[in-house]
């Protein structure tokens, strides 16, 4: 494998800006409710959704980064549950 999987490369695979600042902004502005699965988020296009599901189903080296993205996009929901 040429590039070791990372959150930045996952964003790149999804066709999104992948600088640390761009990722932080994306995460902050795309928070999901606790009951919305990552792959069901309304902002993914068909290709992005398929890519995320594929990595999870294959449980490949990218799955950990998909899980990380899932956690980050649910941070607000987790905070609300902790209150």
Q: Which key terms come to mind for this protein?
A:
59% helix, globular, DUF2789, DUF2789 family protein, DUF2789_sf
Question: And the CATH topology?
Answer: Arc Repressor Mutant, subunit A
Strand elements, count: 0
Structural class of the secondary elements? mainly alpha
Gyration radius from CA atoms, angstroms: 13 Å
Q: How big a fraction of the residues is strand? A: under 5%
Fraction of residues in helix: 55-70%
Poorly predicted sequence stretches spanning 5 or more consecutive residues: none
- Top CATH class: Mainly Alpha
Average pLDDT metric = 93
**Span between N and C termini?**
42 Å
CATH-assigned homologous superfamily? Uncharacterised protein PF10982, DUF2789
Determine the number of helices (DSSP H or I, runs of at least 4 residues): 5
User: How many strands, what sense, and barrel or not for the largest sheet?
Assistant: none
What spatial form do the alpha-carbon principal axes imply?
A: globular
Which CATH-level-2 architecture? Answer: Orthogonal Bundle
> What number of domains?
1
Order of helices and strands: HHHHH
Pfam families: DUF2789
Protein name: DUF2789 family protein
Organism: Acinetobacter cumulans
